TrEMBL record:
Origin: domain of life: Eukaryota
InterPro entries assigned to the protein according to its UniProt record, in alphabetical order: ANL_N_sf
Designated name of the protein: AMP-dependent synthetase/ligase domain-containing protein
Any single GO BP term: fatty acid metabolic process
Taxonomic classification: Eukaryota, Metazoa, Spiralia, Gnathifera, Rotifera
Length: 245
């Protein structure tokens, strides 16, 4: 799904399936989800029932038209994944039908869509990021027990493994990353080396670079791994990201 969305220029929002009620409503409306891929259940969580409780008018919607949901005004399509991919009583699509429909689109149409994608645009939004731990420099295979809505699983478990063998450490929100350092003393006593193509500096409270070793400050970084900002929230973006100069 990550690769398909990025190739089509779609913004994928990863939402914790444990979110219910107002929290789920906030996440969906915050990013203006137009289509929701919904598993019927996740472990003991009855996702479909939770969603129906959020939008009880779903049962009265037409299966041949776009949805019109009072609490989720931007959501027009529901796609059910997992073992239960159909429901006669609900106007929802199945993931299987989505794949079948996509297979009918010509390669020329797909290439046109790919060419229209802007590489610097938003690609994914995460509501659950957290702080991950360092991976050793010699791992070639590892288990990622973290669920797909977490940025660690998305970046390290999917995108990173598919493209390279580089291990990363990801900081909450900023996604600043460190490369592995084989020197154990440096690994234990420092933040290790910065990854290539990152500009990094330590500044004081006024934003001026620190002038001597041992002076306390805040780490500022600039480069391709840094998030573009808080989606749809200029104020929060300005609080977290300084102008690049």
């Amino acid at each position: 799904m990550s690769f398909a969305a990025s190739k089509l220029g779609l913004v994928k929002g990863n939402i914790n399936p444990a979110y219910v009620g107002r929290k789920l409503e906030y996440c969906i409306n915050k990013v203006g989800c137009k289509a929701i891929l919904l598993p019927s259940s996740v472990k003991s969580i009855d996702s479909l029932s939770i969603f129906r409780h959020l939008v009880p008018e779903l049962d009265q919607q037409s299966s041949t038209k776009e949805l019109s949901l009072k609490r989720l005004p931007t959501s027009k399509h529901i796609i059910l994944t997992g073992k239960q991919q159909s429901s006669k009583s609900l106007p929802i699509h199945s993931y299987r039908n989505l794949l079948e429909h996509g297979a009918k689109i010509s390669h020329n149409k797909l290439n046109e869509r790919h060419a229209s994608v802007i590489p610097d645009s938003f690609a994914a939004i995460f509501f659950c990021i957290g702080l991950t731990e360092h991976l050793g420099p010699h791992f070639t295979r590892f288990c990622v027990p973290i669920p797909m809505f977490h940025i660690f699983c998305e970046v390290v478990g999917v995108l990173n493994v598919a493209t390279s063998k580089c291990q990363m450490k990801i900081l909450q929100f900023s996604r600043v990353v460190w490369a592995s350092d084989e020197n154990q003393a440096r690994r234990l006593a420092s933040l290790r080396r910065w990854m290539p193509r990152l500009d990094v500096k330590v500044v004081d409270r006024g934003g001026t670079p620190v002038s001597y070793i041992g002076q306390q400050g805040e780490i500022w970084a600039r480069g391709f791994p840094i998030m573009l900002g808080s989606y749809g929230d200029t104020q929060k973006t300005n609080e977290a990201i300084t102008p690049s100069d």
